[in-house]
Amino acid sequence: xxxxxxxxxxxxxxxxxxxxxxxxxxxxxxxxxxxxxxxxxxxxxxxxxxxxxxxxxxxxxxxxxxxxxxxxxxxxxxxxxxxxxxxxxxxxxxxxxxxxxxxxxxxxxxxxxxxxxxxxxxxxxxxxxxxxxxxxxxxxxxxxxxxxxxxxxxxxxxxxxxxxxxxxxxxxxxxxxxxxxxxxxxxxxxxxxxxxxxxxxxxxxxxxxxxxxxxxxxxxxxxxxxxxxxxxxxxxxxx
Length: 239
Known about the structure:
This protein is an alpha/beta fold and about 240 residues long. It has helices at about 40-50, 75-80, 100-105, 110-125, 125-130, 140-155, 170-185, 200-205, 225-230, 230-235; strands spanning about 5-10, 15-25, 30-35, 55-60, 70, 85, 160-165, 190-195, 210-215, 215-220. A hairpin with a 2-residue loop joins strand 1 (about 5-10) and strand 2 (about 15-25). It is globular and about 45 Å long.
């Protein structure tokens, strides 16, 4: 497995946010995690990327079947260097910096010369960012800022991309475009772990999925099967 999470417990003060969470992500997959607001989805991503420390449990990174590396005690910048990039909920672009400057921050571990081909790849994937490269990021639309946040994360050349609510606050047409790009990113070789409130879109694009409820994994199945599961339909798909 590319990433394995085992028996993870995370607390916010006295409150249990995640309890005994275990999951696996294989190379080249898109894996979705769905659940209601407050279920602990963002907490899980922030723990994987080193922004939060778990109380217990292990997070093991093992690209290409090589030496296993435990992530639960590593700093966030070291986790990025190992090949994991995180696109946070709400985009969080640097509003006063240009599009190009935001992207270059994503590739901060590489030299200017090394970043050039990566910039061109991002501009090919997101043509609107090429058009707006000199604009302050704060002047972009919500959809353009989401593309910028994704492009910034890709500048680090991740093996695994963590996406937190990429459709949040976006119009349906833009949401479809974002999910088309997620498929393209995955087809180009990047594994994706997707946290998404729009459960139908998430399950339609994913290979496998987990359902998180009150900080616990309650279902794990192929995404296509969860789309047809009556309880999942009732709770998350409006049916």
